[in-house]
Design goal:
single chain, alpha+beta, Alpha-D-Glucose-1,6-Bisphosphate, Chain A, domain 4, 7-stranded antiparallel sheet, 4 helices, 30% helix, globular
């Protein structure tokens, strides 16, 4: 294991102190991307409703689907509509929300129901580019894992394109 991987594990163990022995450890998602913008602008894209609506993409979305984002100081909600009907709600509650790190709960309701999981996002960078590190843990099942993996892949790709020059 590299020194960097050990440092990340130590950092994450602070945020994910309790282990869930009933949940398989393999249902965790870890991603690391570089975004061509400064950390402050990226933080805004991760927390402001108008930006969330622009980059969060759910699997199998088409031109008849859209997202409406709501934020409050301690939480957020993403309402997903497809064919004029709200079919999914993503609820999140912030446990930590700072400019360079966020930890929040993640729960789905509506047509797709999932158990509550945790998402950690860390931002590392300077003036011209920022490394976004995301860890989504405590995903309860294989179908949930596959859906979340596809959602993060598509969403992070779209987020990166928002800042292409």
């Amino acid at each position: 294991m590299s020194t960097q991987a050990i440092a990340v594990e130590r950092k994450l163990s602070r945020y994910f102190r309790t282990s869930d022995e009933d949940l398989d450890d393999s249902f965790n998602i870890a991603k690391r991307i570089t975004v061509q913008t400064d950390a402050n602008r990226l933080f805004q894209a991760l927390t402001r409703p108008e930006y969330l609506e622009a980059w969060v993409t759910l699997p199998n979305d088409d031109d008849k689907c859209y997202l409406v984002a709501w934020t409050q100081p301690e939480s957020f909600r993403l309402d997903h509509y497809c064919n004029g009907r709200r079919d999914l709600i993503i609820h999140g509650g912030y446990r930590l929300c700072r400019r360079r790190k966020m930890l929040f709960t993640w729960r789905l309701s509506g047509d797709m129901v999932g158990s509550e999981s945790l998402v950690y996002i860390g931002l590392h960078g300077n003036f011209t580019s920022t490394i976004l590190e995301i860890h989504h843990r405590r995903i309860a099942s294989v179908p949930d894992y596959e859906w979340q993996e596809e959602m993060w892949n598509e969403s992070l790709e779209r987020l990166t394109k928002l800042f292409e020059r």
